Amino acid sequence: MIHSPPLTDQQLRYFGGSLALMLVMFAALAQWRFGADGIATALLVLAVALTLVYYAVPKSRRPIYNGFRALTFPIQWLVLTVILSLIFYVVLTPIGLLLRWSGRDIRRQQPDQASVWSEHRKKQALSRYFETF
To answer: Is residue 123 part of a domain?
Structure first.
């Protein structure tokens, strides 16, 4: 699972409202688009019950949040993998191929330059390490 810094109480309260709103929106979608009255009712009951527990019992906020993250982790992983793969294969690979076919080498600033690396200066005074600029 992807690790993130712990959430503050304000962020957890915001998540609770967002979760309730999301469940209500899914209920409305189930009713409007699919005509599934039972699923819409179940989602509304779940939204109300979860919201009541979430805000009435503050100690339940973090476990509910962690459970939701664990539930949505496979979706998160899949979407992240697909997006990064698309960026690599649709954007970066064609740019690399075009640069290679054109003979351009981005490691060199000038065509006759061997490298962008500069020579190492030897035996400098120790006071130089205290100069920040």
So the answer is: no
